[in-house]
Amino acid sequence: MTTSVVSESYxxxxxxxxxxxxxxxxxxxSDSITAFTANPIQTEIPFTMQVKVExxxxxxxxxxxxILNLVEEWNPELHDQLQRIxxxxxxxxxxxxxxxxxxxxxxxxxxLPYVTEQATRxxxxxxxxxxxxxxxxxxxxxxxxCCGEPVRxxxxxxxxxxxxxxxxxxxxxxxxxxxSHCGNEDVKAIRYLSVDGExxxxxxxxxxxxxxxxxxxxxxxxxxxxxxxxxxxTIHLDIIAQDNI
Length: 245
Fold this sequence. Notes:
9 helices
């Protein structure tokens, strides 16, 4: 992508975070991640909202420690707050609420949700891959069928529109002329916005539900970017879309 409203230093930090989480994905044993429920899987609710996902507490704690170290490397001014989070990692894994710990530790509101979300992502990606067969049977318009993340990113590859979740990396194919949020198939009610200087990027805006999708053509790209990095690099498309809804 040629345009970005995100600073280069933040992009560099996110690239390091992506590399760290990728390393954890490779280190995780699929047998140590389980998702189970006593009830039949419903096809209209995201998978992880129906099941209990379990991971070894020690593994999650180790991930949190490494993420805290990386965040401090990026912003040393957060040292004291990150140290307080580190001292409460056991409480986090035992189920204390984020709001309670944030209040007790006097944290900036964004810090604890951010680091716990990053530590959750390798686990979600393992679930997405391990239970792919079950997840493909789920249809949740506007939401990722695995983790429930709102749909916002699609790739064009080999002539197909593939929706891609930056959070859990689930992917699924969809009709190129269909709104990914409401299922609208009226082509006259879908606008295709182009961005000057970016022939690989489009924004699909639905005039029925007033939501949008970022669509990136990766057919000419030698390397497919990590979806979470691509999502960050295209934040300017979100701004353009919101100005045109």
